[in-house]
Amino acid sequence: MKTVYGEMCISDCAVRKWVRILKGEDPRETILRDRKRSGRPLSASVRAHREKVDCMIRANRRVKQKEIANAVGISKERVHHIDTTVLGYRKVTARWVPRQLTVEMKAQRKDMCTQLLELSTVFILA
Questions:
Q1: Are 56 and 71 in contact (CB under 8 A)?
Q2: InterPro entries recorded for this chain (predicted)?
């Protein structure tokens, strides 16, 4: 533009700023994220899908995400999101394991530890 209009020409930055002002946007605010837009709602994370995924994992701890996705009818990415974020599972040695122990699991561990402790005292005394 400076070659055509000379030194009295405004900069590209100023033109862009004016365009934002005329559109009703504040030029001092920088928007780093996408704005909300209408579109298809997320239907893959509904309660029914979460319950199906949880039921499949509890039935078979070695089930793969691909198998779950095919059975439930949602994408592998949504299955991964439900498994890790919503339900709190993680994969340990090819098995789905809950991130936190349930009350039943804690009681079972306590029983096993007391049995081992009793057995170890019997072996030590013998």
A1: yes
A2: Transposase-MT_Hybrid (IPR052709)
Residue 66 CA to residue 92 CA, distance in Å, equals 17
Greater model confidence, 71 or 18? 71
CA distances to 1, 15, 97, 123 from 60, rounded to whole Å, are 68, 61, 11, 37
Q: How far apart are CA 106 and CA 112, in angstroms?
A: 10
Distance CA 85, CA 83 (A): 6
Structure tokens at 97: 């394991």
Q: Are strands 95-98 and 89-92 parallel, antiparallel or unpaired?
A: antiparallel
Q: Place 67 in a pLDDT band, splitting at 50, 70 and 90.
A: very high
Q: So what's the pLDDT on residue 32?
A: 55
- Integer Cα distance of 107 and 112 in angstroms: 9
Kind and range of the H or E run holding 114: helix 103-125
CA dist 30 and 17 (Å) reads: 12
Listing DSSP states for 14-43 in one string gives HHHHHHHHHTT--TT----SPPP-------
